[in-house]
Design a protein that fits this description.
The complex is a heterodimer of chains A (about 270) and B (about 400). By secondary structure, chain A is of the alpha/beta class. Helices cover about 50% and strands about 15% of the residues of chain A. Chain A has a domain of about 180 residues: Aldolase class I (TIM Barrel, Alpha-Beta Barrel). Chain A is globular, with a radius of gyration of 17 Å. Chain A starts with a helix and ends with a helix. Chain B has 2 domains: about 150 residues, Rossmann fold (3-Layer(aba) Sandwich); about 230 residues, Rossmann fold. In chain B, the strands form 4 sheets. A 6-stranded mixed β-sheet of chain B has the order 3-4-14-9-10-13, sandwiched between helices. Chain B has a 4-stranded parallel β-sheet with strand order 7-6-5-8, sandwiched between helices. In chain B, strands 1-2 form a two-stranded antiparallel ribbon. In chain B, helix 5 links the parallel strand 5 and strand 6. In chain B, helix 2 packs across helix 4, helix 5 runs parallel beside helix 7 and helix 10 packs across helix 11. The termini of chain B are far apart. Classes of the chains: A alpha/beta (about 270), B alpha/beta (about 400). At the A-B interface, helix 3 and helix 5 of A face helix 1, helix 8 and strand 11 of B.
Chain lengths: ~270, ~400
């Protein structure tokens, strides 16, 4: 049987569109609200990335940092994050969840205990921003044994040789970082150039589902329709911040945004 | 875990960049893998290249001004009444602190690789000031990331950076100190690594930055070794080297050439920042038994909570106010080559008062931590013991704090 992540891609492919992957930070702006947001946007998104907030992030731009600091300030702990996933899965069992974060959080939890808690709560995949290949070999194998997708990252600076090694060691899904940027940067490379690199990856590794992230927004998303999947993160985090500042309900506003994003690629 | 003899410590890491199998490494986003690898290849080649060494030595000698003085503190020795107290006055170096060595080497590397811009982090402002000086000297554009709290408390260095034409970029995230400045600097590099070189201001960060910095500051112990031999005829039988430890660049450089000596002959004492004596916060992960974690790309002992969130630190000295510590020092601690302890804010201030009372020397708040412990221990040591303290920074930058804490006459 296919795992939920691969199924989500298959479903999107059948509908002739890329899978829509959202990123929100666990505990932003509160545990309860972040769960509500997940439940609500899961009506439109195919895969949900749940950010594990960390206070010394080396790859996140301002928007995601704001979300992460807000969540930490409101007291989010690792065990709360597993609880949020578990509660989400009670009503939406088949919707895949990917945790995305920094390695220290896993390291302090203990790799094995972390994976056990992932399985228990229903996490389907992991993205660890600062655990690149080949450093991640041992951990990604552990993930595989636990039927958890370890999602390898590729970037414009990844050499062809590395590209081959990394895709070979990757699981069902890989993540291409569109440009040299932290999250939330403005798209500074032409979509054509990004798609060229994307196609290069697909040629080397046609069977893996490759998603593109960084710089994907309402404005740019429709330019990448012929891909396996697209990740939108910072724009959603920004919308949460905006809603909070305007004393509006982030759950409603974010859902509207994700609905629109979906429509643009359908 | 074992320290090997005859191999520079910076080259004792394994192929993934771990010292002792567990400290250091490269916990970096995929985007930085390539620029880091490029820098590794460049550095490994150049550090064996005679022309490059000659070039480095030329700038060290003519521009930084080597050697810095090695002086006996006669009055302080008499006052303390124990071991002979000496100081290596590294603050003689151009710019007033040891940070100039690493900054110069990074600019030389950047220049050779054709980069036009160099970025760096700073806490006390010395790393930033020196990088801005070196960048100006070598015709590079310079951006310095500095915590907003540090900008406030280290104004003289901020002014110096601006005078040298650098952009000083305030960092408002987190605790607004060094830890956040390093994060922001790394983030900027992630987004601009194709055109921009990064200089990490201490022996921290991904393994290559630890190595380059340690290699650069080792100039201090190379000089000291020669100076000791010319003063005493040989390396003294009982030698104790005291140095403050924040990230760990000056202490590593102060000790490196003496690594292979038995610790009974040459002992290394690292002094961390214990913070205000009434506060639970500190910047002394080695002294107070912090757990191993990942910070800024490297595994190290680091102040953190059980989830792995990095904890805020507190210290009167911005240069030591960092929750982690160089992987090199973690390695030296666990192999028991060096001994680590801490001095509180109050103890550092007291030491500053004593040193400036007896000697014509103005150690900044960072080395004042080392002076504090050295003075305490020297009292109980024999007269043939040689105590050397690295006075690695000048107190000019601390004017405002000294005035506040000790009154006008000390500022």
């Amino acid at each position: 049987m296919l795992n939920p992540i691969s199924l989500a891609f298959l479903k999107a492919k059948k509908e002739n569109r890329p899978a829509l992957i959202t990123y929100t930070v666990a505990g932003d702006s509160s545990k309860k609200q972040s769960l509500e947001i997940l439940k609500s946007i899961s009506n439109y998104a195919d895969i949900l990335e749940v950010g594990v907030p960390h206070n010394t992030p080396v790859a996140d731009g301002g928007q995601i940092q704001s979300s992460a600091y807000r969540a930490i300030k409101n007291g989010i702990r690792m065990n709360d994050i597993f609880k949020i996933v578990k509660d989400f899965k009670k009503s939406k069992y088949s919707k895949p969840i990917i945790l995305m974060g920094y390695y220290n959080m896993i390291y302090q939890h203990g790799e094995n205990k972390f994976l056990k808690n992932c399985k228990r709560s229903g996490v389907n995949g992991l993205i660890v921003v600062d655990l690149p290949w080949p450093e991640n070999k041992i951990f990604s194998n552990k993930c595989k044994k636990n039927s958890i997708n370890f999602i390898q990252l590729l970037s414009p600076t990844t050499s062809n040789k590395r590209l081959k090694c990394i895709t070979k060691d990757s699981h069902d899904m890989i993540y291409y970082i569109s440009m040299l940027s932290t999250t939330g940067g403005k798209l500074k490379v032409s979509p054509k150039k990004i798609l060229q690199n994307y196609n290069k990856i697909k040629n080397i590794s046609p069977k893996k589902n490759c998603v593109i992230g960084f710089g994907i927004t309402e404005k740019t998303i429709s330019k990448f329709k012929n891909t396996d999947g697209l990740v939108v993160g910072s724009q959603i985090c920004k919308e949460i911040t905006r809603s909070l500042n305007n004393r509006q309900n982030p759950v409603i506003n974010v859902s509207k945004m994700v609905y629109k994003l979906k429509k643009k690629i359908s | 875990m074992k320290l090997r003899k005859g191999i520079p410590v910076i080259d004792q890491g394994d192929k993934l960049g771990f010292w002792g199998g567990k400290f250091g490494g490269n916990f970096v986003p995929e985007t930085l893998k390539k620029p880091i690898e490029d820098l590794e290849i460049q550095f490994n080649k150049l550090k064996e290249d005679k022309n490059f060494i000659r070039e480095r030595n030329k700038y060290f000698k003519n521009w930084i001004g080597t050697p810095t003085r090695f002086i006996k503190l006669n009055k302080l020795t008499k006052h303390v009444g124990g071991a002979q107290i000496w100081s290596k006055v590294v603050s003689d170096a151009n710019g007033g602190a040891h940070k100039i060595y690493n900054a110069t080497v990074h600019c030389l590397l950047a220049k050779r690789s054709g980069k036009k811009v160099i970025i760096g982090d700073t806490g006390a402002g010395y790393a930033g000031k020196m990088l801005s000086m070196a960048a100006k000297k070598f015709g590079l554009k310079c951006k310095i990331f500095m915590g907003a709290k540090d900008i406030e408390r280290q104004q003289p260095n901020v002014r110096a950076m601006k005078r040298n034409g650098a952009d000083v970029i305030p960092v408002y995230s987190g605790s607004q100190t060094l830890v956040d400045a390093v994060s922001e600097c790394m983030r900027y590099w992630v987004a601009n690594c194709d055109t921009t070189a990064m200089c990490v201001g201490s022996t921290v960060g991904p393994a290559i930055f630890v190595r380059i910095c340690g290699w650069s500051t080792s100039q201090i112990s190379r000089e000291l070794k020669t100076q000791l031999i010319s003063e005493f005829g040989s390396i003294p039988k009982k030698l104790k080297l005291y140095n403050c430890v924040g990230g760990g660049s000056s202490s590593f450089g102060f000790w490196n050439e003496f690594m292979d000596y038995d610790k009974k002959q040459v002992e290394f004492i690292g002094v961390e920042a214990g913070g205000p004596s009434k506060s639970k916060k500190h910047a002394a992960p080695l002294t107070y038994g912090s757990k191993i974690g990942i910070l800024h790309g490297a595994a190290q002992y680091v102040n953190q909570n059980s989830d792995g969130q990095i904890e805020e630190t507190e210290s009167i000295s911005a240069g030591l106010d960092y929750p982690g510590i160089s992987p090199l020092h973690c390695f030296l601690k666990d192999t028991k080559r060096a001994r680590y302890t801490a001095a509180s804010d109050e103890e550092a201030l007291k030491a500053y008062k004593i040193v400036t009372k007896y000697e014509d020397l103005r150690p900044s708040l960072e080395p004042s931590h080392a002076f504090s412990v050295a003075i305490k221990e020297a009292k109980n040591l024999s007269k043939d013991t040689i105590v050397v303290i690295n006075s690695c920074g000048d107190a000019y930058k601390d004017k405002k704090i000294l005035e506040q804490k000790l009154g006008k006459k000390y500022a």
